[in-house]
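INTERNAL TRANSFER SHEET
From: sequence group
To: structure group
Subject: dUTP diphosphatase

Please process the attached sequence and return the structure record in the designated field. Keep the field labels unchanged so the import script can parse them.
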Amino acid sequence: MEVRILDPRIRDWGIPDYQTAGSAAVDLFACVDEPLEIAPQAPAVLISAGIALSFGDFSFAGLILPRSGQGHKRGLVLGNSTGLIDPDYTGEILISTWNRNPAGSPPITVQPGERIAQMIFVPVLRPAFTVVDSFSRETARAAGGFGSTGA
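Return from structure group:
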């Protein structure tokens, strides 16, 4: 995968990397010029990750996820729940950040270079759809959903 560095500070902080031998995702840095306060329940804020990617292969995509500690300890999560980076997208990687804490809580301050999100790479399957009047294979769970198997 090719990485274009859009923010020169990435060269000092390091390109996104796996923090341990068993890490499933790479951490993404907040490329902000100064500390950024995100008020609780305010609209999501886009923060640059300082990079762009060229996948070179359309068989996988990137998913941007919140970092567990940021979400659990601070309330900093993604404004879009999960961000999808399509393999044909080569623009700047942006992180939609949101302060999920209740109104009246203090703002969350994001520091320049802080690791605020992570990106995991997943395979992409693109089935061809065939329109049918009935399915060739029915299952016991043809209907229901949303808790149909119990609590």
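Handover comment: The two ends are 43 Å apart (CA to CA). Residues 29 and 115 are 4 Å apart (CA to CA).
Transfer complete.
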